[in-house]
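Q: How would the C-alpha cells look for this protein?
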Amino acid sequence: MPIEVEGLTYSYGGESAIADVSLRIADGEAVAVVGATGSGKTTLVQHFDALLKPQRGRVVVDGIDIGSKRANLREVRRRVGLVFQFPEYQLFEDTIAADIAFGPKNFGLEPRVEEAMTMVGLPTELASRSPFSLSGGQMRRVAIAGVLAMQPRHLVLDEPTAGLDPEGRDELLAQLLALHEQGTTLILVTHRMEEAARMDRVLVMSQGRLVADEAPRELFARGEQLQQWSLRAPDPARLMHLLGLDGAVLTVEEAVARILAGV
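A: Here is the predicted structure in C-alpha cell form.
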C-alpha cells in the first residue's frame, strides 16, 4: 500500500519547515528526495514513520492516518524503517547480533539477524564481533540491518552514504537497490545527484515546498532551473556537456556508451 501526503505543513517554533506538500509513493517504488540544506527534506520523511505528526494536512501510511488519535503508530513504525544520517552513532550493544536483534525484540518479532546481515552484505561470521571494531561503512551496514530486521515494507534513509569513501558509497547503494528489486519501497534523501539518478522518481524540495516530482532523465534535462534549486546534473551528464556531445545520460555506463558512439 502507498504512502500518501496531502497538504502537509509543519513548522518549528513558528518558522515554516514544509508547506502544503502533497505526494504519493506507491508500494515498491524507489524515490529520491533532494534539495538544498534546509529545504525540508528530513522534516518531510520524518513524517513517514510518524516521528513527526502533521500540524496541518494528512499523512497516510498503508492506510493508517498517522494524525488520527486512534492511529496505531507502533504499527506504522514497524512498516516504515527510518535510518538517520550517520546511523552508526546509534549503535550501543556489545555485539553485532545483539544490536541488530534489539529492535525486532522490542516489537515482538523474531530477530532474523543472519538474514538481515546478508541483506546488507555483511558476513554472518561477524555476528559475535563488537560493532565498534568495524570500519565506518560496516558500522553503517549494521545500523541498517537493525532496521531491516524489523521487516519494514518501506525503507527511508537520510543521506545513507554521507562520509563514506567512493567504494563504500557504491557498495552500499548497490545493496539498497538490491533490496528495492526484492520489493522494498526505497526512499532516499540524498545530496548526490548520481544516487538520485538511480531511482524511479526524484522529489525536489525547495524552501519547504515540493517543486518537482519527475523521472530522473526529465528532471536533469532542466538545466538552468536546477541551478535555481541549488542542484546540478549528475557528473556523467555534465561531462557530456563539456565534451560537446548530445544526449541525456545519467550513469557512467551510459556516458561510456555515448562517448564510444560519438567517436
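The chain has eleven helices and ten strands.

The first strand starts at residue 3 and ends at 12.

Upvote if useful.
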